[in-house]
TrEMBL record:
InterPro entries: Glyco_trans_2-like, Glycosyltransf_2, Nucleotide-diphossugar_trans. Signal peptide: none annotated. Residues 7-173 form the Glycosyltransferase 2-like domain. This is Glycosyltransferase 2-like domain-containing protein. Gene3D superfamilies: Spore Coat Polysaccharide Biosynthesis Protein SpsA, Chain A (3.90.550.10). PANTHER family: GLYCOSYLTRANSFERASE (PTHR43685), GLYCOSYLTRANSFERASE TAGX-RELATED (PTHR43685:SF11). Coiled coil: none annotated. Pfam families: Glycos_transf_2. It comes from Pseudohongiella acticola.
Length: 341
């Protein structure tokens, strides 16, 4: 039997309904893909199991379903998916995300034409609560990205969102480690290891629809042993947000020690320039709470190193999140992609 070209890898945790919608959005040539789901010992395991059974019976797609004996957490579950997959490439999808109709076949054609690029930065979209669509395009067109720390620093924040994250399985296996479990950034670690040593490519095709369940303020991270020291399930608290942001620099420090790079410095500056989402996630909790949180980002995390941080802070303070979101979407539409400062 011929091995699949692409493995669609889905870390599952307690979202059987959303998982079913994601599986239903897969619409490509079934000869070229496999679906791999790893369920991470969540309370709704039985419902997830039944969802996979129904999909396997009616679908044309080869589907592999695994249940973790213990809760591995986000990072450990991604690593397990890589181990269980068999495709040349892996595309990760959060179990609450969706594929854009028709995009998977385009992605398959793109990967076939760029087999020598072991990491692909994808384009994706989101829908805001008021129905507005926001596209996350990072460059005006498909572009080869040269290997090295400058590219990795630029890719760092742009590779965090899991939906559509695409990497060579062989490269991902090569760099497997549990050293960073609990950071929620294993995918960024993989990107960094691969792109320090290899040219990569930006794909200007909207592949995935990120549903952004974090806006519901009910995160599930923090259930595994590796995550409990950093995250508390139940809400996007100040501490959860700060600890997640600090985890970026756990990853960069780890890489700097291995490779003698200066990623920590480079990434801190880049994250400060694009710190709007780090700030806006806490604006809904009121002015005083927001100012306290912004001060922690400035002092504890070091985001006060560029003027952009203060621009976002005061814009959010004076205008609020909804108006700022609208302005950013408008700027992106005018420019055609996220501006590069």
């Amino acid at each position: 039997m011929m091995l699949p070209f692409l493995s669609i890898c889905i870390p599952s945790y307690n979202r059987p309904g959303q998982l079913e919608k994601l599986l239903g959005s897969i619409d490509c040539d079934p000869e070229l893909v496999e679906v791999v789901v790893c369920e991470d010992n969540a309370p709704k395991r039985l419902a997830v199991r039944e969802t996979i059974k129904r999909f396997s019976k009616t679908s044309r797609y080869l589907t592999h379903y695994y249940e973790n004996a213990t809760n591995l957490g986000f990072d450990g579950n991604l690593r397990r998916l890589v181990e269980c997959a068999s495709g040349d490439f892996i595309v990760f999808m959060g179990d609450d995300d969706l594929f854009v109709p028709g995009a998977l076949n385009q992605l398959l054609e793109f990967l076939d034409s760029h087999r020598d690029k072991p990491y692909v930065l994808r384009t994706y979209l989101t829908e805001h609560p008021d129905g507005r669509t926001e596209y996350y395009r990072y460059l005006p067109e498909t572009t080869v990205l040269p290997k090295g720390e400058a590219t990795v620093a630029w890719l760092f924040k742009r590779s965090v969102t899991i939906c559509g994250f695409t990497v060579s399985r062989a490269e991902a296996l090569k760099y497997a480690t549990a050293d960073l479990d609990g950071t929620l950034l294993y995918q960024v670690y993989l990107m960094s290891q691969v792109c320090l040593q290899n040219d990569s490519i930006y794909c200007d095709i909207p592949v995935a629809h990120a549903v952004q369940s974090f806006r519901d303020d009910k995160p599930m991270f923090g259930s595994s042993e590796s995550e409990k020291s950093r995250f508390t399930p139940g809400s996007v608290s100040h501490d959860n947000s700060i600890n997640f942001t600090k985890a970026y620099f756990e990853v960069t420090s780890y890489l700097d020690q291995q490779h003698g790079t200066e990623l920590t410095k480079l990434v801190r500056v880049d994250l400060s320039k694009y710190s709007y989402p780090f700030l806006s996630i806490q604006r809904k909790r009121g002015i005083r709470s927001f100012l306290n949180y912004a001060k922690r980002l400035e002092v504890e995390v070091g985001f006060g190193c560029t003027r952009y941080f203060y621009l976002y802070k005061w814009a959010l303070l004076l205008l609020g999140e909804n108006i700022c979101d609208r302005l950013i979407v408008r700027i992106k539409r005018i420019v055609g992609h996220t501006p590069n400062f």
